[in-house]
Amino acid sequence: MRIILSPSTQEAADTVAMMVLDKIESHPQSVLGLATGRTMEPVYKSMVDTMTKKPMHLEKCFFFMLDEYLGLPENHASSFKSYIEFHLVKPLNLHHDQFAFPPVHTSNLELAAENYERCLREAGGVDLQLLGIGTNGHIGFNEPGSLGDSRTRRILLTEETRLANKTQFKEGEMPREALSMGIGSILDAKSLIMLASGRSKADAIKYLMNHHDDPKCPATYLKSHPHFTLVLDPDAASKINLNI
Ligand code: F6R
Known about the structure:
Elements: E1 2-5, H1 9-26, E2 31-34, H2 41-53, E3 62-65, E4 67-69, H3 80-89, E5 99-100, H4 109-122, E6 128-131, E7 153-156, H5 159-165, E8 177-180, H6 183-187, E9 191-196, H7 202-210, E10 228-232
Helix pairs in contact: 1-2
The structure holds fructose -6-phosphate (F6R).
Fructose -6-phosphate binds next to loops.
């Protein structure tokens, strides 16, 4: 695991954005796995700002979204599809056919999840997967208890996750379930970058530093990946001792 300790939240986001853009520059046909959430907003903004100054060709890239809520109407303003539309697709003029979204609007979720896994394989796998982390150590929506070999599937959200995200929804609208790539699916990516920012992530980061392959904190499974980079802002790193 490589750890990058950034002097500010903005610089942490800029570092991640730069790593993504470097990947695309060196490998224009990159397959990228994208996370959503508040942590990623400054990353996508930084990518958009950089590309406004220095346009890049993204038309050969393909993007897999990591997860999506279940039970929301299509195009709901707080769906992850709407999120990425707002933060990346529109500002960068990307095409919808460059994206694969977890297929949540279907009656047979099990089959749809298998198809998503097949799409990942047929695309040759993800070259670079972006990840945030939940306060409970979840990655994607792999909540505590998820196993290291789990694949794309339907997941019941914990109350902690629902509480953390309920400000994005009107009263009573916060979904109870999601479809998420599994930990095994995430670990198949050739490289992983996790960004954690804010004091609310400090305990999860401390736990991550001290444990391995622990289902209580799904992020600990990432430490076995040969190309895992963890980028931290000062608050997220505030409970660990890096001795640097
Ligand atoms: C979202 C996702 C989640 C978030 C995590 C942190 O696609 O995969 O794991 O990264 O819940 O969310 P924020 O960044 O809003 O604190």
